[in-house]
Amino acid sequence: MKINEVIRKYRKEANFTQEQIANYLGVTAPAVNKWENGNSYPDITLLAPLARVLKINMDTLLSFNEELTDMEINQLLSELSCKVQREGFEKAYEKGESLIKEHANCDKLILLIAQILNAFLTINNVGDSEKYETKIIQWYDLIITSDDKEVATMATASLVSKYMEKKEFEKAQQLLERIPPLGYDKQIIQAMLFSNQNKNDEAYEIYEKMLLKNANEICNVTQCIIRLLAKEKDHVKAERYVDISKKVAMLFDLGAYNEKTSELFLAIEKHDIKRSLDTLEEMVARIDTTSDFTKSDLYSHMKFKEVSDLQIISNMIKKGLESDKGLDFLREEPRFKAMLNAKSPKL
């Protein structure tokens, strides 16, 4: 809660009027009214007396120890993503920065805001992007020592990626060495424990999450290998990996859109205009399959958030096509221009 909401909540719980609070603190009732409406803030010298009057401690008054639930975090992130689409990156960045200041103790929120803004910064042509990138790096750096080990590891990995992009390889290597090696997976032990207690639904949920995560990771890794093989002109082996990636996406119900992703990577690396355009058109036509896994019986014990607005996904893909320099060889192709100019809900 914001400080104005805290003041209003605890004043009412104590059955005080604004005038009574004002009399206790030696201020005017309109001043207290402004505090509660968020139009102004109490002077720093009044914070401790105000907390005593409201019969709360300073941590409660300033919401220092207030923890956000996962549902609250997801709601804030959803609002942030929508703001990028509707008002542009700069406004979304200001909102993200404000949320981080307001919830400075929530490392998970800081991590996810940094990741979202970094993703949008990558696919949008944002002026003075270096300024935003510097701030995002500072946010990651802030939480790499988080008490939440998962958050700390993810922040470190994100920071490694940023330094790799900037070709600061020594910094990236130093950070990478801080990530602990993976031992026997705790999730498997937990699932086995659930199973031994006949808590089968809980065990299924863990296994299904791991299955979905690993299927996506296989596709991601094969795409990285395809890029390497394409650079080495080993197109025969690259085609084999395209086939593997396509089969994995199909077997694990990742959707027709994802089935074509590796093929697009290879076509782009080879500068194969026809295959690139054919594949892109197929993918654009099947954007609606990006969430097919949420309807798959392979993951029937998992709980999924409501599917994102397809228009938002389409806009993100369109901006990616517009800004990706790897697609420059397609810029003058009429079919590519038609995709960028299409006004359908899909692009």
Task: Give your account of this protein's structure.
By secondary structure, the protein is mostly helical. The protein has three domains: 3-61, 434 Repressor (Amino-terminal Domain) (Orthogonal Bundle); 70-176, Tetratricopeptide repeat domain (Serine Threonine Protein Phosphatase 5, Tetratricopeptide repeat, Alpha Horseshoe), CATH 1.25.40.10; 186-302, no CATH class. Helices cover 68% and strands 0% of the residues. Helix 2 crosses helix 3 (29-37) and helix 8 (107-123) packs antiparallel against helix 9. The longest helix is centred in the middle third of the chain and has 32 residues, at 200-231. The model has no long low-confidence stretch (mean pLDDT 87).
Number of domains: 3
Using the alpha-carbon principal axes, give the shape: globular
What is the residue-mean pLDDT, rounded to a whole number?
Answer: 87
Unreliable stretches (pLDDT < 50, length at least 5) are none
Count of beta strands = 0
Strand content: under 5%
Count of DSSP H/I helices: 19
State the helicity in percent bands. Answer: 55-70%
Question: Could you say which structural class the secondary elements and strand pairing correspond to?
Answer: mainly alpha
Profile the largest sheet: none
Q: N-to-C terminal Cα separation, in Å?
A: 39 Å
Order of helical and strand elements = HHHHHHHHHHHHHHHHHHH
Radius of gyration: 25 Å
